[in-house]
Specification:
This protein folds into two domains: about 1-170 and about 330-385, Alpha-Beta Complex (Quinone Oxidoreductase, Chain A, domain 1), CATH 3.90.180; about 175-330, 3-Layer(aba) Sandwich (Rossmann fold), CATH 3.40.50.720. About 25% of the residues lie in helices and about 25% in strands. By secondary structure, the protein is an alpha/beta fold.
Length: about 375
């Protein structure tokens, strides 16, 4: 089959690789009809996350048709059309029983990314996301093996287009969980730092849940304009102003009820942070976190769906303490949210497909990565279509 393969930083190619085969009784083989390039794929593309190996198949946002099912698969059959959650969860362990699927302690044979892990078990395996998380081949391919197929894949009605539902695999539930973690609702105020795909999905979910005042912070004008035009967000370009200061000034000098850091460790930071990160003396930039802390009112919440790894200096923990802030963060418990979000799409309350700006054949995936990485041609979200 054909698949997008990682060779080294900034070097990905569509190669011919062996077809996947069933390995466990609860596996399925999926013929992929649509897959997407995620913002967190760019961390891998740029060589920023350890554990990538030449030959790894990328991609964790995908959907398609079941072509083969193992004998223990009870919920799916060949011909079924499904969206696959990026988290691989067993459904039976201590954490899955609590619907904390991203913490599943049985699917990842590797160590995870925690530095100070002691004897802690790793969290869940993920598709196409380094050998720290199992080295499971991803979905930017013609076919994929899906482990634990009884837990997570969601059946899609034939009347719904791929673009309507594809983002159930990651960015929509990630944005939704970020808003739930922020604890905001009707009449509240929210600032979202990062107008990428997760930030845009968070904006959509925030409006659906009744958030009244919504700020969107970024430095790409076309992304800010999309958030303004689509979700009624107040755009703030952090290249022009101190975003947190503007937010405080426009919230009666209190700050917003909550802030979402949808950027993570690759936020645009200082020259010192960039140098320290290059020398592996820093886990990335803490600029977005600092801005969130500064923008939130006393007693507010900082929600962090953006990926972080390792340590972050200048965290301003004293400011967070003095303001009495709550922090909620982590990978998304996708399986928990998918059925509810599918129903909301069906009802017309969410329309994630409007985020798509580019559609490319799988063979042009490397071009899609370059375009998305460089923010060229108004690129918001790329869908790849095999075949």
């Amino acid at each position: 089959m054909r698949a997008l393969v990682y060779h080294s930083a900034h070097d990905v190619k569509v190669d011919t690789v062996p077809d996947p085969v069933l390995q466990q009784a609860d596996d399925i083989i999926l013929r992929i009809t649509a897959t997407a390039i995620c913002g967190s794929d760019l961390h891998l593309y740029r060589g920023k996350v350890p554990g990538m190996r030449a030959g790894d198949i990328l991609g964790h946002e995908f959907m398609g048709e079941v072509v083969e099912a193992g004998p223990a698969v009870a919920t799916l059959a060949p011909g079924d059309r499904v969206v696959i959650p990026f988290v691989i969860a067993c459904g039976d362990c201590f954490f899955c029983a609590r619907q904390l699927y991203a913490a599943c302690e049985t699917t990842n044979p590797a160590r995870g990314a925690i530095l100070n892990k002691k004897q802690l078990r790793p969290g869940a395996a993920m598709f196409g996301y380094t050998h720290l998380y199992g080295g499971v081949p991803g979905g930017q391919a013609e076919y994929a093996r899906v482990p634990k197929a009884n837990v997570g894949p969601v059946l899609i009605p034939a009347t719904m287009a791929d673009e309507q539902v594809l983002f159930l695999s990651d960015i929509l539930p990630t944005g939704y969980q970020a808003v739930l973690n922020a604890g905001v609702g009707p009449g509240d105020s929210l600032a979202i730092f990062g107008a990428g795909p997760v930030g845009q999905m968070a904006a959509a979910c925030a409006r659906m849940l009744g958030v009244e005042t919504l700020f969107m912070v970024d430095h790409h004008p076309y992304r800010l304009e999309f958030a303004r035009a689509t979700y009624g967000a107040i755009p703030i370009n952090f290249d022009d102003v101190d975003a947190a200061e503007v937010i405080v000034e426009n919230t009666a000098y209190r700050g917003v009820d909550a802030a979402i850091d949808a950027i993570g460790f690759e936020a645009k930071g200082s020259a010192l942070e960039t140098a320290l990160a290059t020398l592996k003396l820093e886990g990335g930039s803490g600029q977005a976190l600092r801005q969130c802390i500064a923008a939130v009112r006393r007693g507010g919440t900082v929600s962090v769906p953006g990926v972080y790894a390792g340590f972050i200096h200048a965290f301003l923990f004293g400011d967070a303490f003095e303001k009495g802030l709550t922090f909620k963060m982590g990978q998304t418990h996708v399986q928990r949210h998918m059925p509810e979000l599918l129903e909301l799409i069906w009802q017309g309350r969410l329309d994630p497909g409007k985020l798509v700006s580019h559609r490319l054949p799988l063979e042009q995936a490397a071009d899609g990565y370059r375009m998305f990485d460089r923010k060229q041609d108004g690129c918001r979200k790329v869908i790849l279509q095999p075949g």
